UniProtKB/TrEMBL annotation:
InterPro entries: WGR_dom_sf, WGR_domain, YehF/YfeS-like_WGR. Pfam families: WGR. This is Polymerase. SMART domains: WGR (SM00773). It comes from the Bacteria. PROSITE patterns: WGR.
Length: 81
């Protein structure tokens, strides 16, 4: 479960376009033996939009999270750390 609780925080900056975005993901257990992939995105420094997608297993949620991370990295997002 340690892996599921890990937050992934990605950022994308392009000063020429005044683009300062973030994308945050984490997997957390639900109350009905399900798992949620929680995503938040928006402009750095502002509240973001939140979406939860539900999965039957932790493994499926982690796979979905990894696919999103890879897609965002292809668009120029980088891990903040």
């Amino acid at each position: 479960m340690k892996q599921a609780m890990q937050h992934i925080y990605l950022v994308r900056h392009d000063s020429d376009k005044n683009l300062h975005r973030f994308y945050q993901l984490h997997v957390t257990p639900g109350i009905f033996e399900d798992w949620a992939l929680v995503r938040e995105w928006g402009r750095v420094g502002s509240p973001g939009t939140v979406r939860k997608d539900w999965f039957e297993t932790e493994e499926k949620a982690l796979i979905a999270r990894q696919r999103l991370v890879e897609a965002k990295q292809k668009k120029g997002y980088q891990s903040k750390g």
